[in-house]
């Protein structure tokens, strides 16, 4: 006999009955007017017990990685603490760990280790690590560091495959992808990204000035108004907030979206939004400085106002997420309700 769940949502969740779970999802959405992450319900209804053997093996491989790559790890963390362009690195591993935990708990079947593929990837990671450590004596230090951390991240991904299997690895694919943002880009690659943000921000600012009827000319990263020249320097590229916006979209996509094309669309939106928010910042400071008070050119909004425009970009991401989530909910409802017999 099945015990009746009645009106108790906790009993409905624990029962595992798909109709009851669906009703709880609908009730939670109606009560909060906020999309309920399906991962939360999946976690609450998960009946699989823990698997200490797999966890112990995974911890052992993790400890080996720390022992072998301790110097690149220390250098990467030091770089993140010292440079705004790498600040996001400090968030990557904790956020990825939390998402991997939530995603793996939502898998209905227990770990199914994949030794052949996993051990092959571990061997590849070790080869890359050894080459980065001893086989690149003539390479620049930042290039060697990047390659070493790529090997480290590959080792972590292979460890998941070895002890938890292909099914679990697929379920946590996006958090595993997030781990690659732990890799510090070499200076030559970082300069390309910063330069692109500079040019994109100058182009966006000039477009906004034109939209309000301001006479403007642009030459590369230089925006010229009637009585003012604005140069979008490296310090004004907003590289830190742009990385943070990418990390934010990855986390939101993993928590609230199911389909891969919707996830990819949300993450890809971080790139144009990074340019748009910084162009808006240049435009706003230019307008305030020319029309209200020249002090805005060297004021708090210029030096510490990045969080304001980052918040505007996050609101835009939230709006896009809402649209994508709304288009996904009807599909989720159809697949959640079992066919009537």
Summarize the structure in words.
By secondary structure, the protein is an all-alpha fold. It has two domains: 127 residues, no CATH class; 149 residues, no CATH class. Helix content is 71%, strand content 3%. A three-stranded antiparallel beta sheet has the order 1-2-3, covered by helices on one side. A hairpin with a 4-residue loop joins strand 2 and strand 3. Helix 10 packs across helix 13, helix 11 crosses helix 13 and helix 11 runs parallel beside helix 15. The N terminus is likely disordered.
What is the domain tally?
2
Shape: globular
Mean pLDDT score: 81
Cross-sheet strand order for the largest sheet: 1-2-3
Rg result = 24 Å
Instruction: State the order of secondary-structure elements, H for helix, E for strand.
Output: HHHHHHHHHHEEEHHHHH
The number of helical runs is 15
Largest sheet: 3 strands, antiparallel
In short:
Helices cover 71% and strands 3% of the residues.
Name a few traits of the molecule.
disordered N terminus; mainly alpha; 3 strands; 341 residues
Helix-strand blueprint:
Elements: H1 9-15, H2 18-32, H3 38-44, H4 52-68, H5 70-82, H6 89-105, H7 115-134, H8 141-171, H9 173-178, H10 187-211, E1 217-219, E2 222-224, E3 229-231, H11 239-256, H12 260-268, H13 270-291, H14 300-304, H15 306-336
Antiparallel strand pairs: 1-2, 2-3
Helix pairs in contact: 4-8, 6-11, 7-8, 10-13, 11-12, 11-13, 11-15, 13-15
